[in-house]
Design a protein that fits this description.
- The structure is a homotetramer.
- The first copy, chain A, is 35% helix and 21% strand.
- Chain A is an alpha/beta fold.
- Chain A has two domains: 131 residues, Rossmann fold; 195 residues, Dihydrodipicolinate Reductase, domain 2, CATH 3.30.360.10.
- The N and C termini of chain A lie far apart (46 Å).
- Chains in contact: A-B, A-C, A-D, B-C, B-D, C-D.
Chain lengths: 387, 387, 387, 387
């Protein structure tokens, strides 16, 4: 009988040398000692995949030239040896093929966001996931921050009352010029409709904002009014999005994301105002949550200190004042994924404290968000219903 | 011949004991030793006006029961004694009557914002001002901050390139409950359509945001899409406004103001992103201007130190690190108004360094903004042209 | 019988055109409508005094060539006309002569800090003040901030428990080079022992830190160990001071002030830690007080909002989020001085809510602090008792 | 011939379940895919060691009951299998024995700080290291932050001129009450002289401040004047330290550390002022470095963006605005250690870009710092020479 009291074994699709998000996935997976990288198809270029595997100290025989080869050959290995799940960290257009094939061969998936190239693919993957019952994670990673979980817990337990207003802003400045024309790889694929899908700014970061907003408030966006702009000459897709939103229960809000806001690094912020309180969270200072109350009280909740929700404490590793950052938050998704996967492999009921990570539903919703924004942007009418 | 080498003499309409903005106008007028308060009709209640005048150490004979009385009796005083101008600090519905009568009797006016009860009144006042040629100031006071002037100067001289995106936000939280039902006077008149006019949140603070945005960028709002909400049960007018805006030259933006954002004090912020740079200004830390450049440079401009524009330096009184605040910024409008008025009274050409204060045009534009927001809010179409 | 239901009349010694602190005193005195400037001897240069008086719109006959002339001629005016008190805003070596003469002629005094040229002068002035019983204020102005008063009230009412540790830091950078050699007037007299007295950095800003620390904690410094340095070649007096301090009741602390800390504007900060809580206050963001508690609670107290002490509220003029600054805090001293003086002139008991301003005792203590620091700096022993 | 193109193999002494710093070392070692944990003696309690090893998914045969057993048995394994180095993460009194034995058996060491129980042990370890020539790292981890390396590079290349003043502050509040009496393990050993050595606050965090200060400025502390206090009744060793320091080249400074500063988490800050510039770094916002220049310029250097030194860039993994934190900085030491060790094992010259991590010299210096502080605290003389 297979022993699962071991690290979960990860195979990776994409994430070759020089890739940004692939390296993040690897660090996040490694951090909590729950996962080991055992194989990979790191690039569509077989030689580059080989070099990447070597740099990652993988045995040559588990570095594959294609994801198809990886899935087939790993499948052929004995159960105690083969990878336990597949992490997909390729550009958007290459999420669907390996995700589909992995599930078809019985492998659980952890997929980078947005889930797919378009909404139709996302729906198809969801159907396949439902059919196979395989675990499927989508790395809307900002939900892994302790203070994000604290905000969610506070709202869920009524600590700011019924939500009235939400402001989600996600400005970046890195695409303020035609960077994609300079050979910068990140910029190149994200601004290319054949690889990124129908949206650039909205797909890359707007979906993070939409997910986090819904995750924290527990409310769905019901309709929106979007104003998209392509500011940089020579660019095909939007690089700026300003969106009015309506949410369930009568809440209103604003969601804006931008890649041309010169000087902005990754300035993702979320503010939620309820009937009796308010919350501010800033991704670039992620260990602080400002908490406001009706009696003009203002307190600072901080990662790892004072009275905090269990969900927040479970996402914290070190004492307050020792800043945890982006990788740590990302790693919470992997840690929870791995622990839940291990329970399932052992035939046990997963510990509900660790099942909190975005899955295929959140992935599909992200693709619906993109589709709705694009439809609203084209409409002359004010409000467009969320798909 | 009249000697104008003296402080300018101010008569005040409104601003009796307990009023917020009246006291601010008096402190602002007093700060720079250019103006003295010589008379007032501080309340529509004659006894309250008398008490207010006494508390202000005014001679009883120059404390009037009505603004009509004040204007007529001051007019009857010799030129060297009578007030030089009238400051109007009443609720919105009481701006037009004294402003009209003051101009009809030859008195320059300094009027609180918004200029009038409705757009028609504003247009009428503007026509009268044009006819009489009298000085007319409107206290869009946030334009008096040194770092606001620095931002304006930077944009005007091309330091961030062509403007692409603007985010003006103005959240407050003081009306998150039905404060007006508790007898709070500020809340009572601002939420009462018979005194405030057709808008509450948009009129009180949205107009500040619109003015500052246009003042700093030098661009006019051309069209908008507004989403207004009344969140607090029992309230008649909107207490929250989310607005997408388009500006001249293709710039886009967001303007949102709120009075139900629990925890927000007076958190007015402005961010402007151009082709080659970005600027952030925060009213609650007004002496800092963050300046971003394309090469990923980030510098901090600070009131009174380093390389600054002349307009910024002229709005600064004390060395860097000794914070100047809201009253100081407000006082810049009064100082400039007084110096310009003195020059005119002396028959001299005003020093162009001190003619920079909002006038009747800005006042009319503010009323047009309110009217357009309300029209857009009712429209099912996406974009509404600015009046 | 004289009517004192009027503004208090201020005569000023020093503060001619171009002076920094003189202008601050005038703005502070004017802000709250309690004081009017009626006369002055603005410069030791009679022509410059005349020009300054003209620029301040004073009648020529009340602009004097010397402080002696001012005191004598004002004394000769009828009681209802003459100045009510004298504000002294000259360099340190010129505090004692006018302060002494003013008291000898029955005039109350408001004097800039440090009180005198040396400790002996201070003691003499204190004796004269005691003998005459005249009001005497010393502008340790940082004690006028609302959040400083809040901190003091919190400690006085036991909200952080017995004080254990204090960190007072006051770095500036403006004298990092030999600015005094460039003709900069502020630098010239402050670094000149014949005008500033025996200390530069310690006298100019160290005394502010010492006063505030004692004001807020209610504890006196008992002994100290000082390390003074003159970093800039060509300078005579110290431009940097690092001091270990012991306070009453076993509290310990650090007080450091500097004028060579490049980049620092006026970065005066105070932190106090008690047995059950901690407080942080930053002069450059003066409307915020961070309040820590043993249970790892952290709350933000803000000027003018939430639960605050009466002393803090009385030092606040406008709603929260409309920043009050340096001049406003300075003006609290003048407002309190004026109200107390008016009560005394009217033969009434002063309202105890307004008697809170630094007086001659605080002035003497500041001079004792300077003397002790200098003695400690020369000593090879570790601890030197506070004079 | 042994293949070293693999992860370096780490054996761990200490760091059983529930330990703080052991878990940090493991996460730091894992993050960059350069090291794998292969064995450990995680506790002096053999059963606890076994449980810890199981939770870490180690094979039972490589989980040892004592460090002696681990060293002997690993030594007996074939070269291609045995651990490559030993990480020591025990309380201070247990650094020396395993470090000594490891070196005596030819194993390189990575040791937590402070290096030893007392200065004599440190000197002895240094002698042994010199004799054996084995790699020896000491985890003064704050030197791993990108902006710390940037500060060091800026000073080394003269960008702020000759250093004049340094302020290193390290307040914490977690020991403001007698936590050690509640069974809290971290508090228990750190405040126990038989396990922590002669100092508590100075040893635990003061040594970090001293190391970073010397690392960043490149200057050694030459003499000091220390004031130590034990504030909490029932505690044996100091919980607060205020120290005046002199550095090479005439620089002066202050170093203070505290564990009783209620509300402080891990608020380690460093400010350095030179003749032409100033730098501020705050550990709790580690990705920002404020840079001041003589012309009153103020710029913000940020991790991973803009013009940065190579040393800073090499310590950065992800794009600006994605915050890297404490674990990431700690991991830089392990990454550099592993890369240098691999080069040495391969017989190659280590890449000088990765030899930058604290070694035995820094460890000895830390113990000398502790000894000097304690001597100074007892002295009645002002200055005590650094050992």
């Amino acid at each position: 009988m297979t022993n699962y009291n071991r690290k979960m074994r990860m195979g990776m699709v994409g994430g070759g040398l020089g890739a940004f998000i692939g390296a993040v996935h690897r660090m996040a997976a490694a951090l909590d000692n729950e996962i080991e990288l055992v194989c990979g198809a790191f690039s569509s270029d077989a030689e580059k995949s080989r070099q990447s595997g070597e740099a990652l100290y993988l045995p040559p025989e588990r570095v594959y030239g294609t994801f198809e080869e990886m899935i087939l050959k790993e499948k052929a290995l004995p159960e105690g040896e083969r990878m336990d799940f597949v992490a997909i960290v390729t550009p958007n257009h290459m999420h669907y093929p390996p995700a589909k094939m992995a599930m078809e061969h019985g492998f659980p998936v952890m997929c980078d966001k947005p889930l797919a190239f378009d909404y139709a693919q996302a729906v198809e993957l969801a159907a396949l996931q439902k059919k196979t019952g395989l675990m499927f994670g989508v790395t809307h990673n900002y939900s892994g921050y302790p203070m994000v979980k604290e905000a969610r817990a506070m709202i869920a337990t009524g600590q700011i009352g019924k939500v009235r207003k939400v402001v989600a802003e996600y400005p970046q400045g890195w695409l303020a010029t035609l960077v994609e024309a300079t050979g910068q790889k990140q910029a190149a694929w994200r601004t290319d409709p054949s690889r990124a899908g129908a949206a650039n700014c909205v797909g890359d970061i707007g979906t993070h904002a939409a997910h986090l907003l819904e995750y924290v408030t527990g409310l769905k966006i019901t309709e929106m009014c979007a104003d998209l702009t392509t500011f940089v000459p020579g660019r095909v897709m939007e690089d700026d999005a300003n969106i009015l939103i309506h949410l369930e229960g009568g809440a209103k809000g604003i969601l804006h994301s931008s890649q041309i806001s010169v000087g902005e690094e990754n300035n993702f912020n979320l503010r939620v105002y309820g009937e009796t309180g308010g919350l501010w969270w800033h991704q670039m200072e992620p260990n602080t949550l400002q908490v406001f109350g009706l009696g003009n009280t203002q307190r600072i909740a901080r990662t790892g200190i004072g009275q905090l929700s269990e969900s927040s404490l479970l996402a914290t590793r070190i004492p307050a004042g020792h800043p945890e950052g982006y990788i740590e938050a990302f790693a919470i998704l992997y840690r929870n994924y791995a622990r839940t996967l291990r329970s399932l492999l052992k035939g046990e009921t997963p510990d509900p404290r660790f099942t909190d990570f975005p899955g295929i539903e959140e992935g599909v919703r992200g693709m619906a968000f993109i589709a709705t924004v694009l439809e609203s942007a084209k409409s002359q009418g004010k409000w467009t219903k969320h798909l």
